[in-house]
Amino acid sequence: MKNSSIVRFFWMVVFFLSWPVQSQIVSQFSFESDPVTAADIGPDATAISASAYSGPGGAGGTRGLNAGLPKANINMVIPGSPTFDLNGIDVSFDYQREENGGTFWQRGSSLSINGCNNLSVSYRVDDGGGGFVTVNSGNVYAIPNDDTYRNYRFYYTPCDGYGALLVDGVEVWSNDGPDNRNMYWTGAGDVTVGGGIDGTGNDDTFMDNVIVGEIICSPLPIELVSFTATYNESNRIVDLEWITASENNNDYFTVERSADGVNWEKVLEKKGAGNSSQTLTYSEIDRNPFIGVSYYRLKQTDFNGKYEYSPIVQVNRKVDKITVYPNPVKKAEEMVIYVENNFSPQEDEMVLYSADGKIMRTFNLKEIVTEQKSLIISTDDLNAGLYILRYNQECVRIIVK
Q1: For the chain, how big is the Rg over CA atoms in Å?
Q2: What values do phi and psi take at 360, rounded to 5?
Q3: Which residue from 201, 132, 193, 143 is spatially nearest to 168, judged by alpha carbons?
Q4: Which residue in 316, 305, 315 sits closest to 254, CA to CA?
Q5: SS3 helix, strand, coil % of the chain, rounded to 5?
Q6: Residue 309 in contact with residue 21, Cβ under 8 Å?
Q7: Tens of pLDDT along 312-364?
Q8: Is the dihedral of CA 97, 102, 107, 111 positive or negative?
Q9: 256 phi and psi, to 5 degrees?
Q10: Which terminal residue of the chain, N or C, has fewer Cβ atoms less than 10 Å from its own Cβ?
Q11: How many angstroms separate the CA atoms of 58 and 50, rounded?
């Protein structure tokens, strides 16, 4: 099993003509449990290699996608329409190199993110006359052959025709095409993840956190240089920072957090500069991030009440005391709560809440720690949706499907 050197993840976008809004994650696979075809968000995969499974050694110490044995290409198929019939797209995944060739994410001839040894992308864009033009990056980044997870990302913004490839938030290639041109791929077929990728038969986990979002562009009265969220492992907090190049009638910012990329809550507000023509840096802290993946977005509000959102960024805080398996869990399926042997709870209770704050279950945490070490619970009375398991002022998100 390989050890990951990644302790935090973040997405960063730099735009000066407009601020693209990733309004919602449309597809997400974290591969935390089997079957790996089960999606956290969006449609489940309809096919995958019989050898593929959720294995230890994923990004940030989580579980991830392993091609398994006997050696076979992953070839995970996700239904294409209508989920991916979008004008603008944002595809991100974590990967550590295992082989020399393959396709990470592909939808027919309309979008193909290729790699394993060299990163490249090919995509189709509306030409404005009913046809399309194809943009090819060629090989732009030599993927290191080491045991380190890196975040690879492609996005295309339809407002300014801008496409880019990024590695760990750093742009390695871009193409600035004509403005107001959409992706050319409505009805283009299903999506394949891991085409021609078999892990060289090493039975190692090498891919994780495949996330796809929709990008919509909207002009804003600020020029946002960056918005980042970084997990501070020593203090167990998230450091939040955003930089503006200019501001016009900007009243205030709101940082929002989500456990699933769909349901959001306010973390903090920060007064804006109003009007500014110089670079300004804002820094804040989230002292209570979720355990596991947290999503953050920045909301900017004008003096007249109008507002817009930044792209979403994500942070992964490893579960170090309590683990829930399987997660996501199917309704009417049993779910197990594991407690580490060295865990000394400061409170007696552990409470399961619904997304709207309703108490669903209450458990005697100290009894579990001292006697059982694990707890098996049924999900028969839980509806599909997000739930939060809170203990010691910390929490674990649970998704019931």
Answers
A1: 21
A2: -100, -40
A3: 143
A4: 305
A5: 5, 55, 45
A6: yes
A7: 898 887 655 677 878 888 887 888 887 765 566 666 788 899 888 889 998 88
A8: positive
A9: -115, 150
A10: N
A11: 20
